[in-house]
Design brief:
This protein is an alpha+beta fold. The protein has one domain: Fumarylacetoacetate hydrolase, domain 2, CATH 3.90.850.10. Helix content is about 15%, strand content about 30%. The protein contains five helices and 17 strands. The strands form five sheets. A six-stranded mixed sheet has the order 4-3-15-8-9-12, with helices on one face. A hairpin with a 2-residue loop joins strand 13 and strand 14. It is globular. The N and C termini lie far apart (about 45 Å).
Length: about 240
């Protein structure tokens, strides 16, 4: 059967060492650092037993922005664009049918990177106040700038790595990844209860405290220590 419109391009992320990663879906984890949960006015679990279920949401695949030192458009319909720096996990093979055991979940990971979960904070706050969904605050065009991906075998122990973001040369966010409430295998396990995970899926793993506004003309530098960097600026 003939398509009636041109086939949309598949978003692709370069991988260190060669090749690209075609993006299928983007899953995101909310409130995965206790200090960020508290700064957003939410309680944080005191122990693993109190975690409950993680907060999960999605962005469209075409929210991805690849490149280096490029400009990100300031989005429409907001006066309060916020940065959230995050570890990005790239899944390289399909999960087996059924619930994914935590012990084997890490074997799905192909590569890691660093990205920004850009957020229209004023729209999110308005949606929360009405008890409604806040997709429009998270899933807009250009809302997921991401670095090139680095194969997992070259990364080593994630827990010891520092995640950080500078804006105009000033450190805004910084935390070791061992501060995540849910680690990567645990999140993949939880996602597998809800979705069939597939090669091409990305997971944005949540952000530490220090989220604040990005304004036209601001320059940002997101880093996953000794692994990946993503530089850019907000068009103005």
């Amino acid at each position: 059967m003939t398509d009636l419109i041109p086939t949309p391009a598949i978003p692709r992320i370069p991988v260190a060492g060669g090749g690209t990663f075609p993006v299928r879906r983007i899953y995101c984890v909310g409130r995965n650092f206790a200090d960020h949960a508290r700064e957003m006015g939410a309680s944080a679990p005191a122990s693993a037993a109190e975690r409950g279920r993680p907060m999960l949401f999605m962005k469209p695949a075409d929210a991805i922005v690849v490149g280096h030192d490029d400009q990100i458009p300031y989005p429409p319909a907001t006066a309060d664009l916020h940065h959230e720096v995050e570890l990005v996990v790239a899944i390289g093979r399909d999960a087996p049918a059924g619930e994914l055991p935590v012990e084997t979940a890490g074997s799905l990971v192909l590569a890691y990177g660093v990205g920004l979960d850009l957020t229209r904070r004023d729209l999110q706050a308005a949606a929360k106040a009405k008890g409604g969904p806040w997709d429009i605050a998270k899933g807009f065009d250009h809302s997921a700038p991401v670095s090139a991906l680095v194969p997992a075998a070259e990364v080593g122990d994630l827990a010891a790595l520092n995640l950080s973001l500078e804006v105009n040369g000033e450190v805004r966010q910084q935390a070791l990844l061992d501060q995540m409430i849910w680690n990567v295998p645990e999140i993949l396990h939880e996602l597998s209860k809800l979705f069939a995970l597939r090669a091409g899926d990305l997971v944005f793993m949540g952000t530490p405290a220090g989220v604040s506004a990005l304004r036209p003309g601001d320059r940002f530098s997101a880093r996953l220590e000794n692994v990946a960097e993503r530089h850019g600026s907000i068009a103005g």
